[in-house]
Amino acid sequence: MGFHHVPVLLAEVLTYLAPRQGGRYMDGTVGGAGHSAAILKEAGAQAHLIGFDQDPRALAAAEQRLQPYGGQVTLVHENFRRLRQVAEQLDVVGKVDGILLDLGVSSHQLDEVDRGFMYRMDAPLDMRMNPQGALTAAQIVNTYPSPSRNPMEPSMVSVETVFFPN
After folding, report:
1. DSSP designation for 22
2. Which InterPro entries match (predicted)?
């Protein structure tokens, strides 16, 4: 399945980020690059965007979508929590005009059976944003110590109590 991405709240992101001509921006969750492409379009030919994603498939999709912007784009295979360290490496600390974090799982990740986010089909419980990460959700659920057999059970019970009281 190809990486299809429709950016959410695009007009609002552009309104509040207000890209300026020649600006430098960071997209901490570049994903399919819908927001990034719009930011670059608004900010013009002298703009630069640094895009982060821990999902290699998302980075490949972003690279393809942002290809028309060539040298205006730096893509980084990292979690946005390392944004500061990457900014230091790129010598852009204090030189960035805006940062976008579109937090959450993407529909692409939910739709790919092998990613293990899907509950509609039988698939291994993976749920890693970075498929090269060490722990799968199955390992956590099945091996982490807990007073109950399932470490998620206390959370499920409290959610059940809130949404489905007797």
Report:
1. T
2. RsmH, SAM-dep_MeTrfase_MraW_recog, SAM-dependent_MTases_sf
Stretch(es) of the chain classified as CATH 3.40.50.150? 10-103
- Residue 124, pLDDT score: 78
CATH topology of domain 10-103: Rossmann fold (3.40.50)
Confidence class for position 85, pLDDT limits 50, 70, 90: very high
Average pLDDT score over the chain: 83
Q: What angle is formed at CA 64 by the lines to CA 58 and CA 69, rounded to 5 degrees? A: 120
Distances (CA, A) of 157 to 138, 151, 153, 160: 19, 11, 6, 5
C-alpha distances in Å from residue 16, one per residue of 97, 105, 106, 149: 12, 22, 22, 46
Dihedral sign, Cα of residue 50, residue 91, residue 100, residue 44: negative
Record the tokens describing residue 78, joined without a space: 């990292």
